[in-house]
Amino acid sequence: MSAPAIGAKEAFKEALKTLSGKVAFGLLLIIVLMGVATPIYAPYNVVKAWSMREVWMDNPPCAAPAWVQFFVHKKLPKTIIIENEDFHKSASTMEHGGVTYKFIYLDAYFDYPYDEFPNKISTFILQVTPTASNTNYVILSVTFERPDGGKITFVSDSSVPVNKTLELRETTKDVVEAAGSYVQSITGEFPKNPLPYVILFAEKGEYMNDPKHAEVLKGTYRIHIKCIAVGDPNANVAARFVLYGRVYGMAGTDSYRRDLMIGLLWGAPIALAFGIVAAVVVNLVQTILGVISGYFGGKVDDAVQRVAELMMIIPVLPILILISFIYHIRIWTLLAILVAFGIVGATTKTVRSMVPSIKEEQYILAAKSYGAGSWRIIFKHIFPRVLPYTFSLIATAVPAYIFLEAALSFLGLGDPILPTWGKILGDAEVANAAYYGYWWWIVLPAACIGITAMAFALLGYAFDKVINPRLREM
Amino acid sequence: MPILDVKDLRLYYSTRAGPVRAVDRVSFQVEKGETLALVGESGCGKTSIGISILRVLPRNVHTYDGHVIVEGEDVMKLSDSEFRKRIRWRKISMVFQGAMNALNPVIQVGFQAAEPLMLHEGLDKEEAIRRVSELFRLVGLPEGIERRYPHELSGGMKQRVVIAMALVMKPSIVILDEPTSALDLMTQANIMNLLKDLKWEEGLTYIFITHDLPLAAELADKLAVMYSGRLVEVGTAEQIFFNPLHPYTKKLIAAVPTLREEKKLEWIPGTVPSLINPPPGCRFHPRCSEAMPVCSEEEPVMVEVEKGHFVACHLYSDKG
Questions:
Q1: How many domains in chain B?
Q2: Interface pTM (ipTM) of the complex?
Q3: Which of A218, A243, A268 is the endpoint of a domain?
Q4: Choosing among A14, A301, A357, A369, which should be mutated to test the B contact, i.e. which has the most B CBs within 10 A?
Q5: A362, B102: Cβ pair inside 8 Å?
């Protein structure tokens, strides 16, 4: 292989003129813009919490991307969050027989205009926290009121301990029983397996426990909390309600309720940084060593070439798997290991084969004669000649490194903290996303990897066309 | 005192078949402001003399000795780094063969020409390129050529860049190795005129390596005819052209074509001898029409036949 008679700058200009070059630069621009937009959408401290489950509790699990609604022509439920401040509060005190009774009422209303029932896996969470200092128990009732006037009482005048949060979910025994009783009050039969996510939001009728046949009851729902504290005028109640939807954001969520958009966006700079740094450093170091090897020849050449051959036969992937498995390394340590294993390799050998013919050219003799030292000749005269070739190698090597990182992450050996595209795919595999039909969890990260790889592959083709005259478009 | 005095210069290359005697005990002198033309067939060792004077030797050097005395100092005694610092490009520079390949295709020409300045004088890039621009005007290059790449220039322009590059450190001796061999006739004439002008204006001493005798006649004050690694005849241009003595020189001059003249071009039977196993005695004797028995036994020595006219041939060995 002979060196291209074209400089690095020229190679770039020429590559931009080809169609594949234009497409590649366009795609790369989009990916880079995505990377730039990432900190605006999700700052670093948000993404740092990627592996912490408790941070994401306000999100629905396994929710599809919001734009799915345009394809199914249905209004799919979004998550509704009612904070403590949004509850309407009223309180009154009453003296009776020398004892102070405090009555506290909390009311919240929300609209439910959607065509589907809320999230099946995790429907809602209602947190009620009574606080008091002079008494240990309060009497609490929690009622869920439907637009059609139906009332489902989750907690009925029960005595609950203070300063402790009472959590009600669709799986709480009281809730399930209350929902079942409600069905019984209408159909006369207590269902075998009451499904609160359907019963609470279904039109009254025979099928109101059957998610396939029940109709969604649209309208304004109400949550009513009544609390009676005996002997403590300072008692209070705080509440919070989250109704989980079926769609979330631009990319949906995974089973850990994480916003996949954050993962996908952060995946871009991480993949680019990883792929580009690995490809650039490895190929440049290999190129420089190839030039040195070819230029000096003799023992230097022998040493570099033998080490290169050794490195080429070392199977890097199993070693990486071993290291990742034992040490749970961060992505940047992985990068350092890759660079360490890639100091010499195939590029060293290819470049070395190009150097002898360049070395014999007149301008090298001229440079020697006017007193340029070996290193100056290597870096000023020979290195720029082989650089465009290196560019095309780098462009094609970037996706290879992105794939490598994805493969390791997929095997569960990726970075323990940061999300990467491979890791999202790995999580999807573990959660059987394909079986359950959570397609967004698989398709979107796969598309990100694919598009990035395609951009670099096209860039590689464009460079190839420029530096390899036989492929040039006329 | 001659500005350049070469004595017994030898440069042998080692090959698997044995040493190649590219330059074998060559001696000549050049006075200041004089132009010496080294003429001879391809492969006779002309370029090897150039690179051995400038000490830019290939890796496979077998023997390299003799004396190269520049302005009274024997530069062969200098260490490589000393030679690089003091002699190369400051005192002796070279215009390399083949203008087309003498420039790195991926570096701007101004920057390439400025490199010696940056290396030797430690000038910064801008200052060096400014100095080079002045020089580019001197060699007749148009404005704004400094930022161009070699492929954007014509052959003549490239050759001017290479000449400017050789002059950038203001050397006193310039070795011109076939400076016009790849150029068309008009460009060649232009470059020759430029070289003549530069010689007068800058007081340069040239060693003009060429295989083209008429071209050598244009520029040279003195001619040295080379055959198979050795000098066979040295003399002024007039002496060599009007009174060639060595049979090889005679044949060489007879082989020069002339315009519109009925003349059968002469050629020399046989081939150029191998430089690994040169014939014994006079190296030209197997092809010489005037060979005598002594020619194959004894190597002829250089004798001064008339003032400034030396010849190494047994025909004249008694006249010395």
A1: 1
A2: 0.73
A3: A243
A4: A369
A5: yes
